[in-house]
């Protein structure tokens, strides 16, 4: 009996080892598939390894990762391996519908932010609305002539502002606004927050764009023409004619301005998948009439339009731009009448009549790659 059980135990150890290496083979096979096609669709399949069989699952991308599984089996003995395969990319978090620097936020009649707002400067205007909470940092800054449907935290709240939630203002500040919730004071000043993208990150993106080559002079795409661009630095203007299309295959850095014709399009190549791409402009950009600025169309993919210009109109958003995130590191962003945008971050933001910012929660974890070459990495490998 003892010999029988020892033989059975030894046989099971061999089966278990074979099942384990079959499971490892399945993981290796799935990683090769993903290396060749990072954005491949979810798939389940079986793989025969010697006398064993393993069932492999490559799921959809969730939160910029795939959780790969391989379940090896030989004559009833199973071993399962799980690997987390994640995008090796730069993550940027946009926690607010609008985040504004010292230039402040101006909200004109009918303008609305469907999300939270954080500003290092005053929030003012004429009958604008913030659907959630508003925070204003800095000594002496105020909220005036807008409606905040959530809570407000500010040094001073001035009439005719309306706070439908609770108001907290700083001791020594002024409160003359209408508050429907509770009112309280605090002695601590509200600390300012830096804008989420550092200058070093902007410089890195510029370097990555320039590594693809430098185009001296303007880069022009004629009416009804299409072109692929990036990674590239343009030492001049980027000019799109009417109905023209640029597909970005890598980051683009423009030292001049972006000039968009009617119904022109800038989008990301499909190989970006769920990643975002970046176009940096030292000059200004006006999104123009019926132009489209967008990612790949996959969830989580956005085109970041970033201007380093210092004027109040570094970026002028003249069209609905649900697939773009607008960012002015040192200047202003203006949203024209009846315009809808996904997220706005700038030193100063001006929202004209009926302009709307519809914040999307997925922007709290937005990943940017240096282009389709941006890689993936294994973040964990374990037996389950």
Task: Give your account of this protein's structure.
The structure is a single chain. By secondary structure, the chain is mainly beta. The strands form six sheets. It has a 19-stranded parallel sheet that branches. Strands 18-16-13-10-7-37-35 form a seven-stranded parallel sheet, with no helix packed on it. A hairpin with a 6-residue loop joins strand 2 and strand 3. The longest helix has 35 residues, at 2-36.
Name the descriptors.
45% strand; seven-stranded parallel sheet; mainly beta; single chain; 12% helix; 19-stranded parallel sheet; 384 residues
Any idea what the radius of gyration is?
Answer: 27 Å
Query: Roughly how many Å apart are the termini?
Result: 33 Å
User: How many helical stretches?
Assistant: 2
Structural class: mainly beta
Weakly predicted, low-confidence segments: none
Largest sheet geometry? 19 strands, parallel
Inertia-based shape: flat
- How many beta-strand segments? 39
What is the beta-strand fraction? Answer: 35-45%
Mean pLDDT across all amino acids: 89
Query: Helical content, roughly?
Result: 10-25%
């Amino acid at each position: 009996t003892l010999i029988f059980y020892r033989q059975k135990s030894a046989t099971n150890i061999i089966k278990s080892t074979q099942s384990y290496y079959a499971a490892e083979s399945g993981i290796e096979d799935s990683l090769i598939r993903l290396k060749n096609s990072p954005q491949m669709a979810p798939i389940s399949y079986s793989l025969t390894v010697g006398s064993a069989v393993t069932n492999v699952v490559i799921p959809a991308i969730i939160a910029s990762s795939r959780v790969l599984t391989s379940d090896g089996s030989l004559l009833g003995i199973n071993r399962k391996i799980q690997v987390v395969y994640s995008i090796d990319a730069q993550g940027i978090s946009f926690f607010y519908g609008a985040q504004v620097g010292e230039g402040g936020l101006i909200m004109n009649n009918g303008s609305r932010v469907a999300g939270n707002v954080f500003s290092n400067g005053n929030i003012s205007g004429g009958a604008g609305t913030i659907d959630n909470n508003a925070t204003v940092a800095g000594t002496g800054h105020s909220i005036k002539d807008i409606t905040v449907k959530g809570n407000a935290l500010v040094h001073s709240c001035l009439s005719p502002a309306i706070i439908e939630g609770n108001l907290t203002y700083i001791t020594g500040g002024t409160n003359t606004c209408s508050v429907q919730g509770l009112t309280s004071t605090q002695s601590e000043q509200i600390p300012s927050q830096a804008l989420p993208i550092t200058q070093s990150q902007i410089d890195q993106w510029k370097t990555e764009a320039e590594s693809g080559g430098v185009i001296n002079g303007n880069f022009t795409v004629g009416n009804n023409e299409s072109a692929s661009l990036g990674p590239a630095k343009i030492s001049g203007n980027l000019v799109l004619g009417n109905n023209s299309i640029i597909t970005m295959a890598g980051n683009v850095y423009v030292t001049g301005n972006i000039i968009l014709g009617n119904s022109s399009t800038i989008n990301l190549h499909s190989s970006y998948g769920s990643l975002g791409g970046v176009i940096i402009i030292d000059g200004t950009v006006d999104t123009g009439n019926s132009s489209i600025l967008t990612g790949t169309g996959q969830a989580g993919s956005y085109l970041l339009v970033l201007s380093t210009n210092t004027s109040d109109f570094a970026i002028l958003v003249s069209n609905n731009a649900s697939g773009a995130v607008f960012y002015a590191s040192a200047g202003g962003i203006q949203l024209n009448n009846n315009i809808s945008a996904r997220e706005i971050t700038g030193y100063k933001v001006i929202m004209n009549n009926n302009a709307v910012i519809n914040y999307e929660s997925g922007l709290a974890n937005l990943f940017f790659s240096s282009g389709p070459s941006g890689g993936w990495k294994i973040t964990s490998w374990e037996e389950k």
